[in-house]
Amino acid sequence: MGTSRKSKAAGLLAASGPFAKQFSGFVPREQQQTLADAISHALSDSVPCLAEAGTGVGKTLAYLVPLLLWLSKNDGTTAVISTHTIALQTQLVEKDIPAVLAVLGLDITYAVLKGRQNYLCHQEMDVAAADLLAEIDPGFVKLQQWTKETKTGDVADLPFVFGNWHDVSSHPDSCRGKDCRYISKCFFYKAREEAAGSRLLVVNHALFFTDLKLRQLSANAPGMSLIPDYDAVVFDEAHHVDETATRNFGVEWTSGRVPRLLSRCKRISATNPALLMEIEQLHQHLVTPLAVQGNREGFLSEAWDTDEASTTFATTRNTLVKNLERLGKDLDAIAEASLAGPDQDRAYGLSKMATRAARELEQAASDAPKTFAFNWFTVKEPRGIATSIAVTFTETPHFISDAMETALLARTKRLIFVSATLATLGRFDDVRFRLGLNRSSVIECRQGSPFDFAANSLLYIPKHLPAPDASNEYASRMLDIMEDLVHASNGRAFLLFTSHRMLQQARDRFAGTRWPLLVQGDKPSGRLLADFRVTQNAVLLGTYSFWEGVDIAGDALSLVVIDKLPFAIPDTPPQRAREQRIKDAGGDAFLEWSLPSASLRLKQGFGRLLRTVTDTGVVGILDSRLVTKRYGRMLLNDLPPAPITHHIPDVESFFGANKR
Hints:
Blueprint: H1 8-12, H2 18-22, H3 30-45, E1 49-53, H4 59-73, E2 79-83, H5 86-104, E3 110-112, H6 122-130, H7 133-136, H8 139-149, H9 165-168, H10 187-196, E4 200-204, H11 205-217, E5 232-235, H12 241-249, E6 251-254, H13 257-265, H14 273-291, E7 296-299, H15 307-337, H16 342-364, E8 373-380, E9 390-397, H17 401-409, E10 415-419, H18 429-434, E11 443-447, H19 453-456, E12 457-460, H20 472-489, E13 493-496, H21 500-510, E14 517-519, H22 525-534, E15 539-542, E16 559-562, H23 573-584, H24 589-606, E17 617-621, H25 625-628, H26 630-637, E18 644-645, H27 648-657
Parallel strand pairs: 1-10, 1-11, 2-4, 2-5, 3-4, 5-10, 12-17, 12-18, 13-15, 13-16, 14-15, 16-17
Antiparallel strand pairs: 6-9, 7-8, 8-9
Helix pairs in contact: 3-4, 4-5, 6-16, 11-12, 13-14, 13-16, 14-15, 15-16, 20-27, 23-24
């Protein structure tokens, strides 16, 4: 579905519009105007919009201008902008929204709302003080003073690091809502009240879909939502919507929950020690048979070698669920018999925590077959500061399309999905299916980058390299090519990997070379990127977290190398479950799921290279399947139109011609 009418928003972003006159550094772009036009019509016609905007299009202005104009014309309406990262939230609220409002001359109230875990809780502070946390953590005294001074209670405003923030932040299990004696000065409820009074609200995807699931479970009962009602939603960084919604519509239960619960319950003298001991033993019997197997993941139906072991697990799970429910009732009775104060608050909160742990264990560790979801487990050995093996039970929906259709599309059709990487294989078919838009009329708008990739970039593919395999011989040949490319660029490179194993082999290869080496995991990601920007000729090694959301403009980054096509690991439970679901429906799992996912990730990795109109550089994708397999051409067609070479001397010539 396309549009032909020109909107006011597109005109405002043209060369004769106010942004060209008032916005410092603004450059009119036809792609931006086309995108703004599509979003304007989606809002006015009340239809969803899928919009892909390549690097440099200026997608933020392209959706802010029509959205704010629509709000100004429709009194009483409200809108939400949902992002994947808090960094983008902050940029929108502190910079972009006020700047656009100023140019448009509009007065529209706006606010940011974060998840409740970001806000300090007065009730939890009382509980922590009663538990003598001040004697354990010297920072608690500083936190008590900050509590008296802060106006927001937002952890982002905390001027120091407090390691036990989880113990003092707002939590749904311990929150007493309007029954709390601190309701009048609750930081989270103050933020909600400010949000409720605003016409435009900025949230992140996690909070948005937590709210959507809560609305679904409570059948939209008044007062049960986290986000005020809305008439339109813009999802920026929309390629993360499927993943975030899937996680939030599922259920996850980790083995650390019961020990934390019991530790807090033991501080209440009236609790039944025999019941606590029985719960502790049942928990150990539940997770130990899995924990002793080491790092592993699989379907729950595959966890046991014998029927007897499977039956024992089910019996233990059911008994643990009943005991947690009993603990919840006991704690509720203790709270009812307690005087108002920290002891009562603690008991009420732990009662809700025990009841929720029981409910979610029963759901996440279910071994009953389901048509809408699958149950699986993971076992992870300790890493970093962790000291114990973590066992996690998860219920994951096969797909979220039905939930999106019933929970979101039924509320509003004004849904704008915007990202630099949203279409796959030249179409929006995949994202339409994943987001439940197959049965809806949708405005589609795909705008490529205005950058001159033909002149400013080069794509290197080593067609002589055999298809990737797990052998040391292949790894050595691939790393030889990678080293040749880094030599041609004289560092200034991102080397992106699809596995930690290959990253470690690359680390060994580049250690001791003349290029400063920065490796994911050695420092926080932000520190690594800051070091890369100021270190001449640096080489950074990273896995998937560096494939997107990283913006290095200028000469510091001139080479991006991807070790192989980023297909998902084929034997993970989520991948297997979804592929089987598609096959059972008569579809092609590779073409309908695996290939679109790989295409999206490949576009994200490629997009790290050119970030401004003057940037130049080379992308190397060290996977010959791009030229030897039929699907390779499909993937190439999805990438920006960079010239392709199969020869290292061409790369050397490119860098020689683009020296600065």
